[in-house]
Amino acid sequence: AYEYFSYAFKAGQIGNLRAQGPVYGLWLLLNQFDRSAAADFYIDAGVARTYLVFEAKNLVGAEGVSFNGLSYFAGLRMEM
Q1: I need a surface site. Which of 15, 28, 36, 51 has the fewest CB within 10 A?
Q2: How far apart are CA 74 and CA 56, in angstroms?
Q3: Is 43 in a helix, a strand, or coil?
Q4: Burial class of 59 by CB neighbour count within 10 A (0 to 12, 13 to 18, 19+)
Q5: Half-sphere exposure of residue 27: CA atoms within 13 angstroms, side-chain side
């Protein structure tokens, strides 16, 4: 992954930071578990696919402010 951050600290420091590193994840397609409900959800709301997402990012960045570490994310992704 390659990410770009803009930051502003209360102490007045403002800047940008580029970070890169591997992303590991698992996406579970929920449509497979109940296809008729998924079809109804598409008709009613226009959502084609719904995923349960778990990811771990190990990003490293340095430009004035440096960071290094592992971040975890979990969420629900809906594709229109």
Answers
A1: 36
A2: 9
A3: helix
A4: buried
A5: 10
**pLDDT higher than 80, residue 50:** yes
Contact yes or no for 16/58 (Cβ under 8 A): no
**Closest to 18 in 3D by CA, of 27, 10, 7:** 7
Task: Report the pLDDT averaged over residues 46-68.
Answer: 83
Furthest-apart CA atoms within the chain: distance in Å = 54
**pTM score, whole prediction:** 0.63
Tokens linked to 77: 């992704």
* Euclidean distance between CA atoms 19 and 68, whole angstroms: 9
